[in-house]
Amino acid sequence: MSAPDYTVRSVGNGRFAVFNAKGVRVSGLYDCKDFALTRAESLARQARRQERPCLTCAKPFMSEGIHNRMCNPCRRDAAGKAYLGDPSMTQGAASGGLPS
Predict the structure, then answer these.
(1) For a tag site, which of 36, 37, 55, 77 has the least CB within 10 Å?
(2) Longest distance between any two alpha carbons in the chain, whole Å
(3) How far is CA 10 from CA 36, 43, 60, 82, 90, in A?
């Protein structure tokens, strides 16, 4: 499933709004185009969210996109191990490969 496209358009009187791919307004009115663009980005990010299995523990979690494949507990654990110099986190780094 691809994320819907959102566009920002002027609606007159110096105001802006976000519209979906069908041309339906999906936001309030903004005096600043940058605020409307921020809202469009937020809507696109929400549309990409879906439940995915964590690559580490396999438990399902709400992922923000294909780039986000580890749940927060596993991500924190991995970051802590890397920070503390856990050899299991750096084992493959010297050879250019992934840890086995």
Answers:
(1) 55
(2) 61
(3) 10, 18, 40, 48, 51
Would the pTM count as exceeding 0.90? Answer: no
Residue type, 56: T
Considering only residues 5 and 82, tell me which one the structure prediction assigns the higher pLDDT. 5
Give residue 100's identity as a one-letter amino acid code: S
Percent of the chain with pLDDT over 70: 77
Residue 77 to residue 75: CA distance in whole angstroms? 5
58: left (phi over 0), alpha (psi -120 to 50) or beta: left
Q: Would you state the pLDDT for residue 47? A: 85
Candidates 48, 49, 27; CA nearest to 39 is: 27
